[in-house]
Amino acid sequence: AKRAGRGRFRVFETGMDAALRDRRELEIDLRRASALKQFDVHYQPFVDLYTNRVIGFEALIRWDHPVRGRVSPVDFIPLAEETGLICKIGEWVLRTACATAMTWPEEMTVAVNISPVQFRSDALVQTVLSALAHSGLPAHRLEIEITEGALLENTANVLATLHALRDLGIKISMDDFGTGYSSLSYLQKFPFNKIKIDRSFVQGADEGGDSEAILKAIAGLGLSLGMAITAEGVETQEQLARIRSEQCTHVQGYFTGRPMSADSISTFLSA
Ligand code: C2E
Ligand code: CA
Ligand code: CA
Ligand code: CA
């Protein structure tokens, strides 16, 4: 009787209650996912527009939930951040990515996303050092991607962390540039090697107008500051031609390669 009652109650649940319950369930599953080996890392190539060669891959986490199927990182990374689980998950991604990159041709780099929560943790530099030592990957083959969210508070600490990473020889990319709280002064204040232009500007530029102007401006700025510029989300020949003419230095998008499993990389590279 109790079961039936609960079942009936669910029908009248408000959307809010259902969302909360869903979130709690997802959180419980997320806590278990590492132990159950439900995470995987996929890798998306980035191409140098000067040589037209693949020069590295971005590591992107995948979660295969036993019931929900594949859950997008867009949906579970925020939850992992709120619960602090991101530090453990992020460390696992970093170690996995460094170890995988050791199986690639020697000059190729791997880029790893670091959440603002992870970035602010005291353990970050130590964690990175340990992943490098453990895998044997030379520091110059590792890139770290951070978003503006990592730069908002405590400039002194942020600078100290960025310089510590740079001193090790690690490259640092400003991810999703142009979205969120973007401030041009960040590019001057913090030691980035690369700017990644968010795909909304790349794809929006198809219609001309503001997105195209912003794309042009960011690329021009990066160029004059001596930074590499990656255009994200390039899906078509036309978009590739445009970002080339805007003097972007690198491209990443479905057109040049979708994220793929570690096992598919050698086939992809020899194709
Ligand atoms: P991001 O760092 O901006 O990564 C690029 C996202 O764009 C990836 O989505 C990628 O699959 C997608 N993408 C690449 N090329 C194209 C394209 O041509 N068209 C379209 N429509 N999409 C494209 P994904 O893998 O779903 O990841 C989403 C976001 O989740 C990432 O955005 C990043 O913010 C976060 N994320 C993924 N893996 C990790 C991780 O290991 N750690 C952390 N902290 N965040 C991660
Ligand atoms: Ca990224
Ligand atoms: Ca991005
Ligand atoms: Ca993004």
TrEMBL record:
Name the UniProt record assigns to this protein: Diguanylate cyclase (GGDEF)-like protein
Domain EAL: residue ranges: 23-271
Top-level taxonomic group: Bacteria
Organismal lineage: Bacteria, Pseudomonadati, Pseudomonadota, Alphaproteobacteria, Hyphomicrobiales
